[in-house]
C-alpha cells in the first residue's frame, strides 16, 4: 500500500503582506524626503536666524547687561547694580521725555488710524485702482529724514511756503516747530502724512477678506453705508486693525529721526522724546549704562502695552465663520 507524501504547500506572499511591505517602503521614502526638506528649510532659515542672533538677540542681552553697569567706552564696564534704575526713577527729564513721547503717540496714532481707516474704506468701496493705491503709498517711500527736512523748509516761520500762504490769507505766521505748544503736534502730523498710506493699505488688505455678499445682503435689508460700516466692516476688520495698532504704537514710541532733523529736542525740551533723550545720554554724554537702563525700561513698557492691546482687542480671534 502506497502512502502519498503530504508535504506542506509552499507559502507565497499574500496581498496583505505585499501591501504592508509597500507601505513600509513608502514610509521610508517619505521619511527620507522629510529629512531632505528639513535640511533645505534649515539652509534657507540660517541667514535670517544668524541675523536675528547677531543683530537683535545679542544686542538686547548686551544692553540689559550694560544697564547694570557704569560704562563710557573709555574704561571697562563697572557693575553698579540697580543704580542706573534708581537714577532713572528720580530723573525728572526722563519722566518729562516719557510724557512728551506719550503725547506724541496719542496724537499720531489717533489721527493716523482714523485717516488710514477712512482711506482704506474709500479705496475698497469706491475704487480698486492700483494707480491710486500707489499714489497713496508714495509718502511712505520717502525716508523720515528727507520728510522731516522737507516739512522743516515748508513750515519755516520766515521763509517756509506754508507760512507764506498763511500770511497771504491775513493770518499771523505760526512757529510750528519753534513753539512749545505747536512742536509735538506738528511732528506727529508730519509722521502721519508719511505713514498713513502704508497703514491704509494694510487695512485695505484686511477689508479685501470681508465677503462682499454680506454688504449685498445688508443693502437688501435697507442698511445705510454708515450702518454697514459699524455693523459689518468694523467687527470683521478688528483682528487686522488690532495688529496694525500694535505695530504703529510700537513704531510711534520709537520716534527719533524726525525730531533729530527738525527740532533736535527743542524748544526747551518740548520735543525731547524718550528715544532722543536716550541717544543724547549715550552718544552725547557717553553714559551708556544709564542709556541702556532707559532702553530696557522702554522695552518693558512696550511689551506691557503690546500684551494689553492684544488681549483687549482680541487680535487672535476673528468673527468670520
Blueprint of the fold:
Elements: H1 15-66, E1 69-70, E2 78-79, H2 83-89, H3 92-126, H4 130-137, H5 144-154, H6 161-168, H7 183-208, H8 212-220, H9 225-253, H10 257-262, H11 274-284, H12 288-313
Antiparallel strand pairs: 1-2
Explain what the structure shows.
The protein is mainly α. The protein has twelve helices and two strands; from the N terminus they run αββααααααααααα. It has a two-stranded antiparallel sheet. α1 crosses α12. The chain is globular.
Features of this protein?
321 residues; 1% strand; two-stranded antiparallel sheet; disordered N terminus; mainly alpha; 12 helices
Radius of gyration: 31 Å
Question: If you average the pLDDT, what whole number results?
Answer: 87
Main sheet summary: 2 strands, antiparallel
Supply the helix-strand structural class.
mainly alpha
Tally of strands: 2
Order of helices and strands: HEEHHHHHHHHHHH
Shape: globular
Strands of the widest sheet, in order across it, are: 1-2
Quaternary status: single chain
Low-confidence stretches: 1-13
Helicity range: over 70%
- Percent of sequence in beta strands: under 5%
Number of helices: 12
Distance between the termini: 84 Å
Task: Give me a quick take on this structure.
This protein is mainly alpha-helical. The protein has 12 helices and 2 strands, in the order αββααααααααααα. It has helices at 15-66, 83-89, 92-126, 130-137, 144-154, 161-168, 183-208, 212-220, 225-253, 257-262, 274-284, 288-313; strands at 69-70, 78-79.
Amino acid at each position: 500500500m502506497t502512502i502519498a507524501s503530504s508535504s506542506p504547500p509552499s507559502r507565497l506572499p499574500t496581498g496583505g503582506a505585499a501591501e504592508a511591505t509597500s507601505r513600509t517602503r513608502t514610509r521610508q521614502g517619505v521619511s527620507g524626503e522629510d529629512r531632505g526638506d528639513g535640511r533645505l528649510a534649515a539652509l534657507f532659515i540660517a541667514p535670517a536666524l544668524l541675523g536675528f542672533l547677531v543683530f537683535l538677540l545679542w544686542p538686547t542681552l548686551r544692553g540689559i547687561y550694560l544697564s547694570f553697569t557704569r560704562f563710557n567706552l573709555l574704561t571697562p564696564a563697572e557693575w553698579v547694580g540697580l543704580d542706573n534704575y534708581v537714577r532713572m526713577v528720580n530723573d525728572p527729564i526722563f519722566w518729562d521725555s516719557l510724557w512728551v513721547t506719550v503725547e506724541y503717540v496719542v496724537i499720531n496714532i489717533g489721527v493716523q488710524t482714523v485717516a488710514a481707516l477712512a482711506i482704506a474704506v474709500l479705496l475698497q468701496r469706491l475704487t480698486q485702482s492700483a494707480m491710486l493705491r500707489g499714489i497713496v503709498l508714495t509718502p511712505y517711500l520717502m525716508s523720515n529724514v528727507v520728510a522731516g527736512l522737507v516739512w522743516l523748509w515748508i513750515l519755516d516761520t520766515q521763509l517756509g511756503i506754508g507760512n507764506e500762504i498763511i500770511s497771504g490769507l491775513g493770518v499771523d505766521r505760526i512757529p510750528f516747530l519753534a513753539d512749545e505748544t505747536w512742536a509735538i503736534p506738528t511732528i506727529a502730523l508730519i509722521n502721519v502724512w508719511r505713514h498713513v498710506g502704508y497703514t491704509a493699505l494694510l487695512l485695505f488688505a484686511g477689508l479685501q477678506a470681508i465677503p462682499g455678499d454680506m454688504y449685498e445682503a445688508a443693502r437688501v435689508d435697507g442698511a445705510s453705508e454708515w450702518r454697514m460700516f459699524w455693523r459689518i466692516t468694523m467687527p470683521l476688520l478688528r483682528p487686522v486693525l488690532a495688529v496694525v495698532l500694535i505695530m504703529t504704537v510700537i513704531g510711534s514710541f520709537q520716534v527719533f529721526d524726525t525730531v533729530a532733523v527738525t527740532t533736535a529736542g527743542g524748544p526747551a525740551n518740548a520735543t525731547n522724546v524718550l528715544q532722543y533723550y536716550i541717544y543724547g545720554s549715550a552718544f552725547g554724554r557717553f553714559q551708556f549704562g544709564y542709556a541702556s537702563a532707559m532702553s530696557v525700561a522702554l522695552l518693558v513698557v512696550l511689551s506691557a502695552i503690546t500684551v494689553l492691546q492684544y488681549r483687549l482687542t482680541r487680535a487672535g480671534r476673528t468673527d468670520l465663520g
